[in-house]
Structures are given as C-alpha cells and as structure tokens.
Amino acid sequence: SARDNGELWIADRTLKQIIVMDQTGKRLKTIQMQNQVSGLYVDAKGGLWMAGGQDGMLMSLDWNGKVTGWTGKVGPGNDANEYTEVHYMAVSPDLKYLYVADSLGNRLDRLEHN
Fold this sequence. Notes:
The chain is an all-beta fold. 0% of the residues lie in helices and 46% in strands. The strands form three sheets. A four-stranded antiparallel β-sheet has the order 4-5-6-7, with no helix packed on it. Strands 1-2-3 form a three-stranded antiparallel β-sheet, with no helix packed on it. The chain has a three-stranded antiparallel β-sheet with strand order 8-9-10, with no helix packed on it.
C-alpha cells in the first residue's frame, strides 16, 4: 500500500541504511541494508524500490526493507541487467517498465517488468 502517512524515507548511501523520520524530524526507525542505498522510489501503486549504487543492483522492497525481488548482480558488469553503478531508477505508472540510470556506465536502460 502507498505510504501517504507523511514519513520521510532517506537513503543513506555511506552506511547502507534507510532512515525513516516523521514530519518533525524525529527518527522513527533505521533499516540496515546489505547493499548500498543510492536512491528510493515509490511506484504508482505504492511499491518501494531501491537503487543499489556501486553494488549494481535494482531491488523491490517491502515497507520493512525486506528485498522482494532484484535485477543486476553485486559488482560491476556491462552485460544485460549488469551495471557499474545503479545511481537512480524509476518505474512507469503502469508498472510495465523499469528505468535504470547507470551513472558510471553512462547509460539508461529500460527493462520490461514481468
């Protein structure tokens, strides 16, 4: 479900964590991740996604931070669904396409979500 409760979800790239705060700036929780957290994205249906930075991965998460799916692999690569650095990502409103920005690989990929 969409998170419209006013929480602020912050990607902490250096410490590989997600920080959740309320509107007053009070820290509600910290979610430690195994992968670098370069960016977070909420799709049109309220799904949470994470760009995995130098780990070269794109992940779907539940709202507790559990990884529910991914593409890419740890470590740089140039083959299909391999990335040097997944700097950011987006999802089309119909959830059909995932867009992956590889900042070090100088490319933007469009993946079909199935």
